[in-house]
Each structure stands twice: as C-alpha cells, then as structure tokens.
Write a structure and sequence with these properties.
This protein is α+β, with helices and mostly antiparallel strands and 188 residues long. The protein is built from 3 helices and 12 strands, in the order ββββββαααββββββ. The radius of gyration is 67 Å and the shape is rod-shaped. The protein starts with a strand and ends with a strand.
C-alpha cells in the first residue's frame, strides 16, 4: 500500500555583519619653552679707608715738636741728671780727698769738665717707631637686586585625526523552504 509522505525542509537566513573599528590618531608637538634669566643688578661701593699718621713723637724726637712736649721731654730727664750730678760730685770729692794720689786731682777734674758732654738730651732717638700709622678700613657697601626669570611657554595644538568606523551588513545565507511529496510504502 502506497501512501504519500510530505517532507518539509527549511533553512534559515543568515545575516553577516562585518565591522571596522574607528581609529583616532593624536599627534602633539612639544610646546615652545623660552627661559631667560636677566642679570641681577649689583651695585658695589667701596668707601675709602681712613689713614692716620701721627708723627708728633718724631717731631718731638727731632727737637722741633710742640714746645710743651719738648719741655716735658727735658723735664723727664732732670731727676736722673740730678742723681748723676750728685754721684759725680761725691766721686770728685773722693778724688780730691785722696792725698796719696800722685797726680793732680784738680787738674784732672778741670780737664774732665772741659771735655764733659752736656747730660741733657735735647733730641730723642731718631727711629721710625716714632711715627704711628693707623689705617681704619671701611666695609664695602654691596646691594644686589635679584631679577625674576622670564619664562614663556607657547603650547602647540595637538593634531587629531579621526577615522570613522564602518559596519557592513550582508546576507550570508538565503532562507529557503523545500517541500517534497514522495511515495511511501508502509510494508516495505
């Protein structure tokens, strides 16, 4: 016995999607940087020092200084001169008292008086130590005015390039329906 058999076969449609991503290129150049440092303003002043020369002791030693100092110079010698004179008088008296001395003591004393130097010194010792030199230095005056650095920065714009993406859609497989009728024998 033959029967009819119905066969239905179906395939679905397939959609394909192909995408391309978007891309972005960014390129940035370095900025321009300028730094300048002006020199500091500097003012230096050096006042002159003070030189003091005191030569009054030298003038007094030469005997041509102030009258009061010269008189004091002579007066300072008077005590020792007086003591020396007393000692000399005692010595001369002792010499005159020696009667056993065969020489003439009075003639020797007269000779000594004739050649005796004056004990008073009217001038002092000539020396460079009599000149006093004093120098008073002065500190320098220093004024420094610092200057700020001049910094200038100029940025450069970045170069941005955008590449848009894309989507491509297509039919990868068509849909279909296949219907068939065939003979079918149940006992075979």
């Amino acid at each position: 016995m033959n029967d009819l058999r119905l066969s239905i076969r179906q395939t679905y449609a397939q959609i394909g999607i192909r995408t391309h991503r978007a891309s972005q290129d960014i390129h940035s150049n370095k900025g321009d940087l300028s730094i300048q440092q002006p020199q500091a303003k500097m003012d230096i002043q050096q006042p002159g020092g003070e030189l003091t020369i005191d030569s009054s002791a030298a003038w007094t030693a030469l005997g041509i200084g102030p009258n009061l100092e010269w008189t004091n110079f002579i007066y300072s010698q008077s005590k020792s001169i007086a003591l020396q004179a007393i000692a000399r008088i005692v010595e001369e008296g002792n010499r005159m008292a020696q009667i056993t001395n065969p020489r003439n003591a009075f003639a020797d004393l007269a000779k000594d008086v004739y050649f005796r130097e004056n004990p008073v010194e009217y001038v002092g010792e000539a020396s460079y130590f009599n000149v006093k030199v004093h120098y008073q230095p002065r500190a320098p005056i220093i004024n420094i005015e610092p200057q700020k650095p001049q910094i200038q920065y100029t940025p450069n714009k970045p170069e941005v390039q955008y590449n848009p993406g894309s989507i491509e859609m297509y039919l990868q497989q068509k849909n279909s329906i296949n219907i068939q009728v065939s003979q079918y024998d149940l006992y075979k």
